[in-house]
Specification:
It contains four helices and two strands; from the N terminus they run αβααβα. By secondary structure, it is mostly helical. Keywords: Calcium, Metal-binding, Repeat. This is EF-hand domain-containing protein.
Length: 73
Amino acid sequence: MSGHSEQELKACFDAFDADGSGEISRRELVNALLKLFKGDDQKAKSVAHTILKQADADLDGKISWQEFRSALA
């Protein structure tokens, strides 16, 4: 798993999953990326779109723990 332990990946997933639903929503992803991109809304939305396109295997608009693990494997 890309050199990271399962525990490290789960902690990262949980940091993105702000509401604790077990899935990372588009809004949660954008909010996390806004911090990374210092409030650049367009950049955050663009990167979130790209991440969802690559990681959201079932196309439900959210990233589950299984999808997250698979994307980082």
